[in-house]
Specification:
The protein is built from 9 helices and 2 strands; from the N terminus they run αααααββαααα. By secondary structure, it is mainly alpha-helical. It has one domain. Strands 1-2 form a two-stranded antiparallel sheet.
Length: 217
């Protein structure tokens, strides 16, 4: 009974860690830019596919298992470059438009990313095998917890503290909070709103793609 409860709690904590990363990206964008971003799930998918490709390449090169985590982070960062491209190329035209325009455009982005994934990776599912087993496991009261799950939970907790530090202790975070409360006042005080939006959307995209990449193993 206790082992079953521990299994459920550890699996739930792992899933919650992934969802936290994706939800943080969504909230950062919505909080500052006031955009209903339906494409956040597509960024998650991009990160997952890129993560699978990067890990497969690392396996092919015969690199040690601990570096698989580096591959996943690299995958998340690599595909996050679509963030500023989408923000400058599409989203900047609808900030002052009604919400239906935002929903339609971000849904169109979902369809475009879906087709891009099919074009790049095809229709066949990708797999990395049981890579997560390379991180070992931990036995607790009869329950076996994969070491990779603990790593992801630790990464999510670390990112949570990093986000808190960013928002509360840095000038960029203060500007983000000020703009979220009153964009016009921030602009009047000299904040470069377009540049801020690029940085914020890039951060949100990175959190989403990283969540997708870490889900892969």
């Amino acid at each position: 009974m206790i082992a079953t409860v521990i299994d459920i709690l550890s699996s739930g904590a792992f899933s919650a860690s992934i969802l936290f990363l994706v939800a943080s990206g969504l909230q950062v964008v919505f909080g500052v830019q006031k955009i209903f971003n339906l494409a956040c799930g597509s960024f998650y998918a991009l990160g997952a596919y890129a993560g699978a490709s990067f890990v497969t390449a690392f396996i092919h090169w015969g690199l040690p298992p601990p570096l698989f985590l580096v591959a996943l982070f690299a995958a998340g960062v690599a595909v996050a470059v679509v963030g500023p491209l989408i923000e400058r190329g599409l989203l900047r035209f609808i900030y002052d438009r009604p919400e239906p325009f935002q929903l339609l455009l971000t849904f169109a982005i979902v369809l475009m990313i879906e087709d891009a994934i099919k074009l790049i990776w095809g229709l066949q599912p990708l797999t990395t095998g049981a890579v997560y087993l390379e991180f070992g496991s931990l036995s607790v009261l009869g329950s076996t917890i994969p070491g990779y799950n603990l790593v992801v939970i630790g990464v999510a907790v670390g990112i949570a503290f990093a986000i808190e530090y960013l928002l509360l202790r840095t000038n960029f975070g203060r500007i983000m909070r000020g703009t979220a409360n009153d964009r016009l006042m921030s602009q009047a005080l000299g904040v470069n709103i377009p540049f801020l939006y690029v940085r914020v959307f890039s951060l949100g995209t990175l959190l989403g793609t990283l969540g997708g990449a870490l889900q892969v193993p």
